[in-house]
Amino acid sequence: MPSADHRTRRFGIWAGLATGPVAAFLQQQGGSALVPWTCAQSNGWPAVVLGLALATATAVAGWVSWRARRLRDGRTVSPDLGNRRFVAGLSTGIAAFFILVILAQALAAVFLTGCER
Fold first, then answer.
1. How far is residue 65's CA from residue 55's CA, in Å, rounded to a whole number?
2. Which one, out of 31, 37, 47, 74, has a CA that is 20 to 30 A from the CA of 100?
3. How many CA atoms lie within 13 A of 8 on its CB side?
4. Which residues fall within 8 angstroms of residue 63, CB to CB, at 6 or more apart?
5. In this structure, what are the phi and psi dihedrals at residue 39, rounded to the nearest 5 degrees?
6. Tens of pLDDT along 79-102?
7. Coil, strand, or helix at residue 28?
8. How far is CA 113 from CA 34, 41, 61, 101, 117, in A?
9. Whole-prediction pTM value?
10. What letter would DSSP give residue 77?
């Protein structure tokens, strides 16, 4: 039976890969849902705050994936270590990419009021 640490590391490998796209989706949907309110109030800061919160969550997930790249114990190296390191590195890179996507969408809310047509 796998230990809790093993399950935590297994989740950590995929954290950035799973969190980044979901957070970008939530930011897109949340920003779109806020457009009527943003237009009426001429205030885009809720969309910016939403973007910063989701970018922070994605950064934490990317950091977890980066930490999962290393072996934490002195046990022998398993044959799937290369695969694990690759997926963890890919997850970290995907998280970094989606942080940029989320921040670009949040930055648009600073300049655009939502009333442009």
1. 15
2. 37
3. 8
4. none
5. -65, -40
6. 667 778 888 899 999 999 999 999
7. helix
8. 11, 9, 31, 19, 11
9. 0.82
10. P
Q: Which residue has the tokens 């796998």?
A: 2
- Report helix, strand and coil shares of the chain as percent, to nearest 5: 80, 0, 20
DSSP 8-state class, residue 69:
T
Q: Output the CA–CA distances (angstroms, integers) from residue 111 to 38, 45, 86, 92, 104, in the order listed.
A: 12, 10, 38, 29, 11
- pLDDT tens across 23-48, in order? 999 999 998 898 888 888 878 888 89
d(CA 84, CA 61): 16
CA distance 51 to 60: 14
